Amino acid sequence: MLIGEYSHTFDEKSRISLPAKFRKEMGPKVVIAPGIDNCLFVFTMKGWKGFAERLTRSDTSSVLQADNRNFNRLIIGRAVEVEVDSMGRMLVPEHLRAHASLSGKTIFVGVLNRVEIWDEKSWVAYRQEYEKKTDIMAEKLSGVGMI
């Protein structure tokens, strides 16, 4: 299970260390994809396969629908497989760093089946905004049987 919040920075070669708590579970190769809400998604290889299959299932994602094609292009088409080296570092390509405005301090957030990478300032602003709304979100989720 991928949970927790960790702070890291990029080195001069655009590498960043995957938090030690996530390394064992994620394995030596991961997929990094553009995320939603101005972050990156990091999946295990198995997790990525399941995620991509759900996005492209014919019963939910017709290639005849423009929104489906566009979303899949932006998420799946821009994703990359990366190796995690023996020191736990991974190289994040420029197009993905730009997508999430990553340059200095970053925050890794474990979200059960994936890890998200955020610019520290963006994460703090996002978290502060939504922490004020947890009661409203809980009521909505409860109303649809999620909680």
Describe this structure in words.
With 147 residues, this protein is of the alpha+beta class. The chain is 39% helix and 29% strand. The protein is built from 6 helices and 8 strands. The chain has helices at residues 20-26, 45-56, 66-75, 94-99, 120-131, 134-143, and strands at 2-9, 15-17, 29-34, 40-44, 80-83, 89-91, 105-112, 115-119. The chain has a 6-stranded antiparallel beta sheet with strand order 1-7-8-4-3-5. A two-stranded antiparallel sheet has the order 2-6. The longest helix has 12 residues, at 45-56. It is globular, with a radius of gyration of 16 Å.
Summarize, please.
With 147 residues, the chain is of the alpha+beta class. Helix content is 39%, strand content 29%.
